[in-house]
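INTERNAL TRANSFER SHEET
From: sequence group
To: structure group
Subject: Small ribosomal subunit protein uS4

Please process the attached sequence and return the structure record in the designated field. Keep the field labels unchanged so the import script can parse them.
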Amino acid sequence: MGRYTGPKGRVNRRLGVNVYESNGAIKSLERKEFPPGMHKRRKKPTNYGLGLAEKQKIKFYYGLRDRQLNRYFNKARAIKGNTGESLLILCERRLDNVVRRAGFTCTRPQARQGIVHRHFQLNGVTVNKPGIMVRPGDVITLRKRPNLQNLYKHIAEGVTIPQNDWINFDESSLSAIVTTLPTFDDVGLIVDANQVVAFLSR
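Return from structure group:
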């Protein structure tokens, strides 16, 4: 199955968290703070159901497929320390997430589309893979094309930049520098990482 392209508001309502940041999806959860569908009395969720919901938060928030998430999980298990925290830090280091966190775009899907369409450069090299892992010292810039500069300058003016201390974004030059690796405290998603680890370890 490919990437999810259905109604984003339904996902936010199902998970009870704004994993999608578009205005319509956020308003959908604000208007109806209950899951979609026929609202009969619901059974108490099982441990499997709770773990699945937490996993889905990560999957939709970062725009991952199950295979990609499992690959990150296997990498996280090989890293010393808390596996759940390492998993989320790996997801935070994705290029599309950094482009969003810096303030180039309003949402992660928008950032991913821009990267795939070769709008961005990493250390002076044009890239088209949203899953590239950034490192401290990496510089993210736009290609030197007037139409792209004008487009993203207009977008950046209306973007609320998530608070973070590991990315420096210069709005005047439309460039971002990764100053250090993110920590677990920099993760903006509210998720129970331990439940995700237990679910993916099954």
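Handover comment: Residues 47-62 form the longest helix (16 residues). Strands lie at 120-122, 125-126, 139-142, 167-170, 175-178.
Transfer complete.
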